[in-house]
Design a protein that fits this description.
Protein name (chains A, B): 4-hydroxybenzoyl-CoA reductase subunit alpha
Radius of gyration of chain A: 27 Å
Strand order of the largest sheet of chain A: 3-5-1-12-9-10-11
Largest sheet of chain A: 7 strands, mixed
Distance between the termini of chain A: 64 Å
CATH topology of the largest domain in chain A: Aldehyde Oxidoreductase, domain 4
Number of strands of chain A: 30
GO molecular function (chains A, B): iron ion binding; oxidoreductase activity
Number of domains of chain A: 3
Oligomer: homodimer
Strand content of chain A: 15-25%
CATH superfamily of the largest domain in chain A: Aldehyde oxidase/xanthine dehydrogenase, molybdopterin binding domain
Shape of chain A: globular
Pfam families (chains A, B): Ald_Xan_dh_C, MoCoBD_1, MoCoBD_2
Largest interface: A-B, 55 and 55 residues
InterPro entries (chains A, B): Ald_Oxase/Xan_DH_a/b (IPR000674), Ald_Oxase/Xan_DH_a/b_sf (IPR036856), Ald_Oxase/xanthine_DH-like (IPR016208), AldOxase/xan_DH_MoCoBD1 (IPR008274), AldOxase/xan_DH_MoCoBD2 (IPR046867), AldOxase/xan_DH_Mopterin-bd_sf (IPR037165)
């Protein structure tokens, strides 16, 4: 391959300057002419009938322009199973339920108006655990489904069941077994940018949503459906996003507050802004899906994995968002991490009166990997193998097919494991372990965990595609119209690198046009670690179309064949003379010559790239991604046996990324992911009591801060994926996937306790230590 | 042709609602974060050396962020001959010359700072008429040209000379002759929207101009050149326009104030807004080019025109903008209005210390047509022919070539003349004229004038092209990316009609993306009446590309040949069953089917349309437009012989527009044009004394108001031009072209005086009447 000018180089993020200097415009900063401010009244009970809502006093408050309830509009059903609605009419099912909303001239008036709304409830018994939800005679949260068909239990009508091989036979033939139950709880996304939206109708009743969504085009469809419910059948819905202050999956669904903004704008004829408080972020946004996971795994006498059986119970909360579909990704590590033939997996989602759940970086994978990798470690212990060797023995290999029918092409898992072990001083540690001073209060331990995740997009929607348009001006400046949403992951930078490289122009000459559904062709959204892969491939495809035109024009002018010409860093030159040779000329010169003549032309191109990904079939099988990302994390921890505090002393994070498009931003993804994984492992948890979030602020929700940062070493493994743009695979999510089991395994290594519940807070570690001591005695 | 759904229908303007309800955002309304306000100090003398500028006091005023003069920057040369600069360094040459500028936190502070700037001048003798400028020993305004070559006179180095046939021979063979001198003066554009700009650099020194230009892409090049002078060689220049409050040619050039805003933004690192006052609009913007025109024409004994000779002297003012190039359009009526073989035309532009001149609707054509048509009327009188018959005899015919090598294809001039005559009751009037009561104080008269103008674009720049991109979403909503600028003429409406018609979608599903050079492909600008023709043809070309793709997809689905399918109003149907027949399906359905599958696609298209127009050669010959617009205006006036007041009682305005794309907006163009022509004829004039504009406000500058509106009847003549979009030709400028001569000819008809100077104010009419009475006696 010829030398690359941008791809593979460390490039600072192109959006960084505006962000650090305060020039970036967030939803907080946005103001529209005549804009009103909306506010939402939430439920007072986790489960209750709404007897009456009296808005009369609120409506009379000066400055209040609208007070609305569900009774003011036709029914609007939203969410994955359409079991939710922007405002709740007859019943509330959780404390985050929206019962009324206000639009006023300023946020303070809106807040005061909320206090004047009187709601009369008839409280109902609540269900706050999935086990209780399944109990006989448990009260029904939803009496019917969206189509009015009666429901007989709190189970969701979603079938998550996967089988491959012969589980029972494998069990009987296995020499070693390990089983356990693992528990993961709610984790909040904690985006530093608050949630908000401005809904605005024009005079033709077309809707513009000034939004922060990760999925502009799916959101467009959701809003368009809601408008139909309002009788607006042909309104254009335009989504415009400005700078998004973090997403991590929290903006992968459309939210009640957004539809409420639409209803308020529709009612008042004015743009209406709703901006969340930090408390609302914790209380009313949907966090990571909790899971109760039962697992058993076995291996033969040589340590080869023989089977894996996983049963999950998921607390869906009161309504169904993407959280309920996380089993579709949990299946990845369960079916396909390490080589194991005989698999059984079932997952059951049940309604409770808790907060409902959403997508969160990894989309179920951190939960499942915690379960699989903790238990695998236990199995290695059972057979008495070194956990590293055990993993290397069973590691995925290139050019294999997994039980879920994933076709593994590039795979650097073994290399990741080896490099992590090397970075930790694994061998040394194993030798020294015996010499651990038994009477020390602080004990060191080392742990490993691997991961697999989609790395080439994921066909979770009927299209996994990405449209792109490019337009060159007379100065050689390129506009790239892309539906890709930058949520802080650095896609803007990498996409500019890929485009500049693929077309052969200077990176500073590439501008992205983004975040506007009127301007940018369709994209399924920023999720599933797909943007670098998908938009990158779209850029290569579109650029090559454009380049062909350019070289054709240049060849006509220079009188040679296009194949003899090269375009690099905005210079066109003959292959025989090179970029500095005679006859080399700036791209702009060719463009002007092509343009400034009778019947001239200007250079544009458009393309749509949809990867060869398959949808999961009914048996949860199918190659949903044409490339697979692997990685391994390893940690050295020190456990304080007096306080239960787990300190990470060394954190090695190796990822098979196919190709490092930008080692600098890639490292950023790994740092960020590891930190999020670390928080998930050790401190982050939304604490609910009777459906109420108790820790709804940063002083109570223990997000790791900069001072908690352990020494993280990102290790980049390049395997040059055949389908990836310049060989790259997705890496957006992987960073947070294997952290928790790696740490849990290190804790085991240090003090011999297997932490089965996340987060591993000092209290829980201490309790487990005491339990162990009691048992040991 | 099949029935059309949108083209040819009366459609209200799609931008009207926002404009009348105050939702439209003008430059006045625009605010950028951290924005400063700029203000300009103009010269105190029409011609003087700048000895010294002391900015120290101004700079100390709290709130002032920058005070700049030409001495703070490298030289920046701007304008058509590069004889102008944003700030003047050594010399001022007119009272509108910019000598210093200020940026401050608010406009009031900026204005106060201007008062604190002390400029020391050495006054020089001024030249205030073109004749004086040509006098021997006249002081030189410019000692050198832009390249530093010495200039020896005040004549511009621009050659305007046209010859065809044998003038002298034709003169000698002619039986009748008429000659005269005509005088047209400065007319101000009087846009209701004030001029303004916000210049803003990003942190990479890329420039965004929030602008009101008619020529975003030419302006982009101008600004980029200025940035190069500042040492910024690869900065991207982005032009973004919001609603433009009128243009009429005033925004066809880049202006000193815009470059000053750039310099202030460059100096302060902040966005800087400069917004003109109404006084600045009159004082510092460049008005219509005045002209002193000498003409003689002749005909044979049958009334057939034999020759036309025109000599012009143009007061260029102190610097050169587009005004100096108006002879390139004056040549149209001079060479090609009516059939006449032997032509001579010269025009000389000279520097004076007056205000410099710009493009204005018609671009020299109103001046030239006033001269040609007034004199032609005189010639008809000489030979004793009815002016209508004389014109009909000599009128242009389809499929002819004029001495300027214009290839006239469609031509409805005769029909226009006949319809105007009919609308006026011409024949009746001719009969009754004899019975005019001689002793009446108020005398009625009827006059006619014809016009020719480019109707299919005009290659005045090396490209007359227009790039376009289209993108369809899953809902069948279309985004059209167009460089066309809406300056109030209604292009947005017509372009949506054309697109909807050509593609076969509902008009409300078409949205235009406009006014942003980053988003919209290149267009040479909104001028030369070209947008409906050029962007319309681009839309047809682009839509047909898109339609081909759509019908191909639909044919695959329906299993038929694409030719058997039709797309109309967003429904696809088989030609055999019709739009309501079985199997007809909404476009959106096809689009979704094409998109939502593996390896799916979305529909986009791009195109560049450049008409087969030629550039004028050195002899001022060439078919600069592939279609030619014709028209004729006729008026009935009443002249009050006691006050000199001319009242228009009946105004018939017939235009050969090829095809009326939208009769409603077309009538708007004719009304507006006629009113502007009426003002030009009767009341509008910028009064200068020693270079100073004396009437710089609407109370003194006599713009006709709604109460001055005569009964104007637009008459649409359709000739279905072969090159035009759906047969249409340009009509943006024609409306104002023949007004003045039609009225002048009517005044002659009424009272026997030939008004040779515009405007025909009551004072001038009265003076001429008295002169005539004196001569008659």
């Amino acid at each position: 391959m010829t030398e690359l000018n941008y791809v593979g180089h460390e490039m600072p993020r192109t959006d960084a300057r505006d962000k650090v200097t305060g020039r970036a415009v967030y939803i907080n900063d946005q103001v529209r002419p005549g804009m009103l401010h909306g506010a939402i009244l939430y439920a007072k009970h986790p489960h209750a009938r709404i007897k009456n809502i009296d808005c009369s006093r609120a409506g009379k408050l000066p400055g209040v322009k609208a007070v609305i309830t569900a009774r003011d509009f036709p029914p609007i059903n939203i969410g994955f199973l359409k079991d939710n609605s922007p405002l709740k009419k007859d019943k509330v099912r959780s404390l985050r339920d929206e019962v009324a909303a206000v639009a006023a001239t300023d946020p303070e008036t809106a807040a005061r108006a909320l206090e004047l709304i009187e709601v009369e409830y008839e409280p109902l018994p609540g269900i706050f655990s999935p086990e209780d939800a399944l109990a006989q005679n448990a009260p029904l949260l939803h009496e019917t489904d969206a189509k009015g068909r009666p429901l007989e239990s709190n189970k969701l009508r979603l079938k998550w069941r996967f089988e491959s091989g012969d589980l029972e036979k494998a069990k009987s033939l296995s020499s070693h077994h390990a089983s356990g139950e693992y528990n993961a709880t709610w984790q909040s996304h904690c985006c530093l940018g608050l949630s908000g939206v401005i809904a605005e109708f024009d005079q033709q009743k077309n809707l513009t949503m000034h939004s922060i969504t990760q999925i502009p085009y799916l959101a467009q469809a959701d809003y368009a459906n809601a408008l139909k419910d309002l009788g607006l059948h042909n309104s254009r819905v335009r989504i415009k996003c400005q700078t998004i202050g973090g997403a991590f999956g929290s903006k992968l669904d459309t939210h009640c507050y957004e539809f409420i903004a639409i209803l308020l704008a529709f009612s008042t004829g004015k743009p209406v802004k709703i901006l969340f408080s930090r408390e609302e972020e914790f209380q009313a946004l949907a966090p990571r899906q909790p899971a109760i996971m039962k697992i058993s795994q076995g291996c033969d006498e040589n340590g080869r994995l023989t089977y894996r059986e996983v049963k999950m119970l998921l607390d869906n909360g009161a309504y169904t968002s993407w959280g309920a579909t996380t089993p579709s990704v949990m299946i990845s590590p369960i079916s396909s991490l390490y080589q194991v033939e005989n698999i059984s997996f079932t997952a059951e989602c049940v309604y409770t009166n808790n907060i409902y759940c959403q997508a969160f970086r990894g989309y179920g994978n951190p939960q499942a990997t915690f379960c699989v990798e903790s238990n695998l470690d236990q199995l290695a212990h059972e057979i008495g193998m070194d956990p590293l060797e055990f993993r290397l023995l069973n590691a995925n290999r290139p050019d294999t097919t997994t039980p879920a029918q994933y076709r593994i092409t590039s795979c650097g898992l073994s290399e990741c494991l080896k490099k992590v072990a090397q970075g930790l001083g694994w061998e040394e540690h194993q030798k020294q372990k015996a010499s651990n001073p038994a009477d020390s209060k602080k004990l060191k331990g080392m742990g490993l965990a691997s991961m697999i995740h989609v790395g080439g997009g994921a066909r979770v929607y009927r299209s996994d595609g990405h449209g792109m348009m490019m337009k060159l001006d007379d100065f050689g400046k390129l506009s790239v119209f892309t539906g890709a949403v930058e949520i802080g992951q650095g896609n803007e930078t990498v996409l500019r690198q890929i485009t500049a490289e693929a077309l052969g122009v200077k990176m500073e000459d590439v501008v992205l046009v983004t975040h506007d559904t009127d301007l940018c062709p369709w994209d399924v959204g920023t999720h599933a670690s797909r943007q670098a892969f998908i938009s990158g491939n779209a850029a290569i495809k579109c650029a090559s179309k454009l380049k062909r035109k350019i070289l054709g024009l240049a060849a006509d002018l220079i009188e040679c064949r296009p194949e003899e010409l090269r375009l690099q860093k905005s210079m066109i030159y003959h292959v025989s003379t090179g970029p500095l040779g005679q006859g080399a000329m700036p791209l702009a010169k060719i463009l002007k010559k092509a343009h400034f003549k009778s019947q001239g032309q200007m250079l544009m191109a458009e393309t749509f790239y949809d990867p060869p990904n398959e949808m999961l079939d009914r048996e949860m099988k199918g190659n949903i991604s044409c490339a697979w990302a692997f990685g391994a994390h390893g940690v050295l921890v020190e456990v304080d046996t007096e306080t239960g505090q787990v300190e990470v002393l060394n954190y090695q994070a190796a990822h098979d990324v196919g190709r490092a498009l930008n080692p600098l931003t890639l490292a950023g993804q790994v740092y960020g992911g590891s930190m999020q994984g670390l928080g998930y492992a050790l401190s982050e948890e939304l604490i609910l009591k009777n459906g109420r979030v108790l820790n709804d602020r940063f002083s109570d929700y223990m997000l790791p801060t900069a001072k908690d940062l352990p020494p993280i070493t990102p290790i980049i493994v390049e395997t040059f994926d055949p389908q990836g743009p310049f060989g790259a695979k997705g890496v957006g999510e992987p960073g947070c996937v294997p952290s928790a089991p790696a740490i849990a395994n290190a804790v085991f290594d240090a003090v011999g306790i297997r932490m089965s519940r996340l987060p591993m807070t000092p209290e829980r570690v201490l309790k487990a230590l005491r339990q162990k001591n009691k048992e040991d005695k």
